Amino acid sequence: MRILLTGGCGFIGSAVVRHLIGATDHSVLNVDCMTYAASPETVQSAASSDRYQFAEVNITDGPALAKLFDSFRPDAVMHLAAESHVDRSIDGPGIFIQTNVVGTYTLLEAARTYWQTLDEVARKAFRFHHISTDEVFGALEPSDPPFTETTPYDPRSPYSASKASSDHLVRAWYHTYGLPTFVTNTTNNYGIWHFPEKLIPLVTINAIEGKELPVYGKGENIRDWLFVEDHAEALVKAVEIGQPGETYAIGARQPRTNLEVVRTICQILDELSPDPKGPRERLIRFVPDRPGHDFKYEIDPTHAETALGWKAKHNFESGIRRTVQWYLDNRSWWESIRARRYTGERLGQTTTTTSGTDAK
């Protein structure tokens, strides 16, 4: 397949690019506008392949997208480009509406115009795969069952509302125009190359450096954690065999409280790189909760596992250990990001996040 993939220099997108080039015969056009959370290093291992191309284009630029469709002639679209950091959406929701809603609309229209030029066989085989989050479903109470594909939407933050809007657009283009779209919703991702503003990389980096570990509220909020490489494999399975009009909820059955996550990171670091000043749990600081902080996200992935023939390979313990070791081994990457992009407010003081999937 020839796959036009948006957001391929972001966290999840880059994992998909690496999987496509490293484990399949598919060709990829990575379309990314290189915002603050994009890193060209994340796809360096794929860049030398003759099956990889890159275009620095914003998904809100319709004419530029049209040129890419005409020149690359994709068999499928994988749409991961998005603004995804919940805290940032609270501080400035406008860019989330522009990228996640307007950008998705613009991409849908570019795809539809291109799709209408295809012959009957190619039109039938074409797929538009939209990657979304479990946050569109709102929040679960402690005793509630996990989200499924049929859970009603109930977004609570500007980020999740913008993603819910984009999901609805994707489904509308299927029902109204016949464009063969489908949606995947996923839980919190973690792993290598994760941008240093999200919970796990933030805590890991701060703990490595002996800085405070900010935790919202009492740290009781629960998230279902999925190793990013497992998610990438599921997404590729989906674009290969996913059916138009379908929804696939992708998860790992690995729920943990935020405090459990932070303590696990501390324990692994204490083992791998002991701090002479003592166990790193001493660095945990509880900070005021953020507005509209959803209590629990968890997905029941039964349908996706069955339909896609996929199941997460990593449990949380193995995945988080590999992740922490990676941050120990790759200080130059995250130190460079922090030095050129941050003043300290996001990465060392009181900001953490529990946002779900992030395509950027």
UniProtKB/TrEMBL annotation:
State the source organism's domain of life: Bacteria
So which cofactors does this thing need?
NAD(+)
Has the keyword Transmembrane helix been applied to this entry? Answer: no
The chemistry this enzyme catalyses reads: dTDP-alpha-D-glucose = dTDP-4-dehydro-6-deoxy-alpha-D-glucose + H2O
Say yes or no: keyword Lyase present: yes
As given in the record, the signal peptide range reads none
Report a single Gene Ontology molecular function. dTDP-glucose 4,6-dehydratase activity
Q: What is its EC number?
A: 4.2.1.46
Key words, A-Z? Lyase, NAD
> Which InterPro entries does the annotation name?
dTDP_Gluc_deHydtase, NAD(P)-bd_dom, NAD(P)-bd_dom_sf
- Chain ranges of the NAD(P)-binding domain: 4-323
Pfam families in UniProt:
GDP_Man_Dehyd
Q: Which family does it belong to?
A: Belongs to the NAD(P)-dependent epimerase/dehydratase family. dTDP-glucose dehydratase subfamily.
Name under which the protein is recorded:
dTDP-glucose 4,6-dehydratase
The coding gene here is rfbB
